[in-house]
Amino acid sequence: MTTTDDLDTITERWPTLHEAAGTRTVTTWPPAMGITRLMSEEERQEQAAERADTNPDAPGPRPTPVDVDVLDVMATIETGLVTTADWLAERVQRPAFRATTGRGWSDDVHRQVVLLAAKDSADPRRWRFTGQRDAPTAAEWLSLRLRDQPGPFRALDEGERQAVEEVARMSAELLRRTLGEARRKEAVPHPCPQPCGGQLVVEGGDGAPPIVRCEDCGRTWTEPSSGAA
After folding, report:
1. What are 45-97's pLDDT values in tens digits?
2. Which of 53, 130, 168, 216 has the most CB atoms less than 10 A away?
3. Rg from Cα positions in the chain
């Protein structure tokens, strides 16, 4: 996947991230799967108490319907992209042409120069340091710069290109993980039940069925199919 693909993903999937922020859902990572059989009785009781606390029918105040974690992710992505666009525009964007003549509008040359300066300043291809400065706008503008699209800009040097690529990669990865579209791996705080007693890890989070794998003996466990007898 290319950097422009990462930036296009942010532009296209941003509305979905907005929707995810609007409804708070109770999810856990890593998924429990059969790992609960490896827990002590005390750990199972603690997990049951936690589920009771998040039950929407339980008495007491309920969590806000807004998913604060998703909002934090959105703020992180947006800050990174907008800051990068500000930084890049300061380096590669040509300053708008300015009319310096003091002659009046009756002077044809003066009038043409002023109109040319106004048109150059209002060029929609320019990055704006005020106004609409959100993640999709920044992602689209950065994508066009990587594609060397024409405008009041110079070409990016290798260091500038690499800086944009790194921010785009990290932002897209964070977005995909938040939407459950990126595969994740995390250690499980229980030893392998096989004689090796090795480290267990759970992998998933990208829509594919999660698996638990022992990093020592290599044995794997998967969640039984819901259609199994």
Report:
1. 665 565 555 555 555 555 556 788 899 999 999 999 999 999 999 999 999 88
2. 168
3. 26
Answer whether 150's CB lies under 8 Å from 92's CB: no
Do you know the residue count of the chain?
229
pLDDT in tens, 98-131: 776 566 666 677 777 778 888 888 899 999 999 8
Angle between helices 3-22 and 68-92 (to 10 degrees): 150
Distance CA 50, CA 140 (A): 42
φ and ψ at residue 37, rounded to 5 degrees: -70, -20
CA distance 137 to 132: 7
Tell me which residue of 60, 10, 9, 53 sits closest to 28, measured CA to CA. Answer: 53
Contact 220, 208 (CB under 8 A): no
Distance CA 140, CA 151 (A): 14
Cα–Cα distances in angstroms (integers) from residue 14 to residues 23, 48, 108, 132, 229, in the given order:
15, 35, 47, 15, 40
Show the 3-state SS of 15-71: HHHHHHHHCCCCCCCCCCHHHHHHCCHHHHHHHHHHHHHHCCCCCCCCCCCCCHHHH
Q: Residue 73's closest CA among 176, 159, 152?
A: 176
